[in-house]
Amino acid sequence: MMESIAKEEPIEQDVKHSLEPEKETVIPKPKPSAPIMLKLKQNYREQLKILNDIFPDLNSKISGEYIRLYTNSSDEHRSLTHALAEGNDCEYYVIPPKEMKPIKILIKELPIFTKTDEIISDLEDLAFTVTSCRQLIFKRTKTPLPFFLIILPKK
């Protein structure tokens, strides 16, 4: 009868030829720095021309009464703020980056008669540095609320 049956060998699949796409390492783009807000004036075109001569890669967008000025690096951001500070004709403000903004915490449901000094000392015992602590009040009646606002520096 059939003495020898041909055995089929399993087909080996090449790992390189699999259907899954190869994963590439993606380098995230750096986030743009916070804009510098330059107030619009009658001579805004002259101001922008001077700034573009100094900073050729400066991006600008109009936003209401202000022009948003975007730079490509933190060094350019710093030098642009110094250049605007030296020019007395410019009115501007800078939005601080998230790294510089403090941490704000609201503690609820503590008794109204809790003293802020006690909260500060308890937080310092837990190794927190407290910038400020205050109890919130009801605006109409000026009565204290059971809410405490605590501000911590960003660390």
How big a fraction of the residues is strand? 15-25%
Strand order of the largest sheet: 2-3-1-4
State the order of secondary-structure elements, H for helix, E for strand: EHEEHEEHEE
Shape: flat
Oligomer: single chain
Give the overall pLDDT as a whole number: 83
Q: Work out the helicity level.
A: 10-25%
**Rg over C-alpha atoms, rounded to the nearest angstrom:** 30 Å
Tally of strands? 7
- Note poorly predicted spans: none
- The structural class is alpha+beta
- Annotation field: number of helices: 3
Describe, in plain words, how this protein is organized in 3D.
Residues 1-26 have a biased composition (Basic and acidic residues). This is Pre-C2HC domain-containing protein. Residues 1-30 are annotated as: Disordered. The chain has 155 residues and is α+β, with helices and mostly antiparallel strands. The chain has 3 helices and 7 strands. The protein has helices at 44-54, 74-86, 116-125; strands at residues 36-39, 59-63, 66-70, 92-94, 103-108, 132-137, 144-152. A hairpin with a 6-residue loop joins strand 6 and strand 7. The longest helix has 13 residues, at 74-86. The radius of gyration is 30 Å and the shape is flat. The termini are far apart. The model has no long low-confidence stretch (mean pLDDT 83).
